[in-house]
Amino acid sequence: EELLVQETARRFVDARVLPDIADWYDQGVFPKELALEMGQLGLLGMHLDGYGCAGTSGVAYGLACMEMEAGDSGFRSFVSVQGSLAMFPIWAFGSEEQKQEWLPRMAAGEAIGCFGLTEADSGSDPSSMRTNARMVNGDWVLNGSKMWITNGGIADVAVVWARTEDGVRGFVVPTDTPGFTANNIHKKSSLRASVTSELVFDDVRLPADAVLPGVAGMRGPLSCLNEARYGILWGVVGAARACYEAALDYTTERVQFGKPIAGFQLTQRKLVEMAVVVNKSYLVALHLGRLKDEGLITPAQVSFGKLDNVRNALEVAREARSTLGANGITLEYPVIRHMNNLESVY
């Protein structure tokens, strides 16, 4: 079952992502229309049960993230944000009405979600957020802003975390609500094939039932981040693998001094080190995935996996770029794109 999920994701990436990803990255666009295809394949919210979600294992979800990021971090980010940051809090903490309204459409790719937690002055310290919501004549009124929000400019719904009299609460905010605006962030050198936005809330009026009833305090948003980090620690293995494979292909074909440069021991050493690092990272991800499926994983273990797998992927990307020489800096090859993307993931 897990291998079938992995193969499905890989075929999608091979057919629909890799042929055009260099252009999308170069132009700074994300092909929103592919969301429906990802939904049809069951890739959105796939590790959740019910409401049109596939209900796969954590390992299967991780393998899909790995294949998506082997295509590009932007696609893995889309899948992670949709499933782990936007759908997960509705699924875990939402009312039955909220779940019925949003989850089936989000699983199908018909509605796109984003997650509003980070602010310009509240990054690693989200509890210092300034965005607030107060009750006015039975409605919630939301004011503030969020920064670095993946999918923000293409989202139909935002899960927004704000201060209230009862502490931090989550709100389900349709993006067509008056007072809601999304400003896309341009001139990025990383995650270019991904929409990153600032969200602004100017007296956004929401009904009383827009709040997520199942959680209060920072436990809500932090549990979502834990789910997203889990997807990332798998995803970056795909980016690292893609860089290694590009280096392997290139060095076995590039002839210098009368033979392929893969025939020289210095290059062979680089290839071996990359292969070892990729496989070690994969085994860490797989081990953590099994722990997750047994209900034994801790947030510290997820953070351990994300930290080590991301920095290892960066190391592989930089080493792979060195084997490609001048060709390593062009988008004809995937290495510099992965290398730049991994700086954001790190």
Q: Any chance you could write out the topology, listing elements then pairs?
A:
Elements: H1 2-17, H2 21-27, H3 34-40, H4 58-71, H5 73-93, H6 96-107, E1 113-116, E2 132-136, E3 139-150, E4 157-164, E5 167-174, E6 180-184, E7 196-206, H7 219-253, E8 255-256, E9 259-260, H8 265-293, H9 299-323, H10 335-345
Helix pairs in contact: 1-4, 4-5, 4-7, 5-6, 5-7, 7-8, 7-9, 7-10, 8-9, 9-10
Give a short overview.
By secondary structure, this protein is an alpha+beta fold. It has helices at 2-17, 21-27, 34-40, 58-71, 73-93, 96-107, 219-253, 265-293, 299-323, 335-345; strands spanning 113-116, 132-136, 139-150, 157-164, 167-174, 180-184, 196-206, 255-256, 259-260.
Mean pLDDT: 98
Radius of gyration, whole Å: 21 Å
Roughly what percent helix? Answer: 40-55%
Strand content is 15-25%
Q: How do the strands line up in the largest sheet?
A: 2-3-7-6
Written description of the protein model:
- There is one protein chain.
- Helix 7 packs parallel to helix 9 and helix 7 runs antiparallel to helix 10.
- The radius of gyration is 21 Å and the shape is elongated.
- The longest helix is centred in the C-terminal third of the chain and has 35 residues.
- The strands form three sheets. It has a four-stranded antiparallel beta sheet with strand order 2-3-7-6, covered by helices on one side. A three-stranded mixed beta sheet has the order 1-4-5, covered by helices on one side. The protein has a two-stranded antiparallel sheet with strand order 8-9.
- The relative contact order is 0.13.
- The protein is α+β, with helices and mostly antiparallel strands and 346 residues long.
- A hairpin with a 2-residue loop joins strand 8 and strand 9.
- It is built from ten helices and nine strands.
- The chain starts with a helix and ends with a helix.
- 51% of the residues lie in helices and 16% in strands.
